[in-house]
Amino acid sequence: MGTRTWWSENCEHCRGKNTIEAYDAPSCLQWFKKCDKCGWSDDRDYYEISENEIALLTEQELGELKNKDPKVKRFREELQRLEEKK
Question: Which of 30, 51, 54, 86 could staple 25 via S-S, CB 3.0–4.6 A?
């Protein structure tokens, strides 16, 4: 199994002390970060961008990366096609 990290931190949005709960498990593509007090959440997620690479990005950042890098675009399109066949 890969590395899994769980921690708390202060929220910059509501100034709550240790109100953000964060969990990071890149080996299973899981990311979670949310403030229990104000409800703010980090909207990043893990995305496969090549056969051997994952990246922690927002959907907007993924779109920008696909526009900049044709290899990432082709790879993500192939993943989509495979998902649609299921």
Answer: 30
Residue with tokens 């649609």: 84
Q: Which tokens hold the place of 10?
A: 């202060």
Identity (one letter) of the amino acid at 57? L
Nearest by Cα to 49 from 84, 73, 80: 73
Q: Containing H/E element for 20?
A: strand 20-25
Q: What is the mean pLDDT of residues 55-69?
A: 97
| Spatial distance between the Cα atoms of 58 and 53, rounded to a whole number of angstroms | 16
Mean pLDDT for the stretch of residues 20-43: 95
Q: Residue 1 pLDDT > 70, yes or no?
A: no
CB half-sphere exposure, 11, CA atoms < 13 A: 18
Length of the chain: 86
Q: What is the rounded average pLDDT of the residues 72-77? A: 97
What distance in Å separates the CA atoms of residue 49 and residue 74, rounded to the nearest whole number? 9
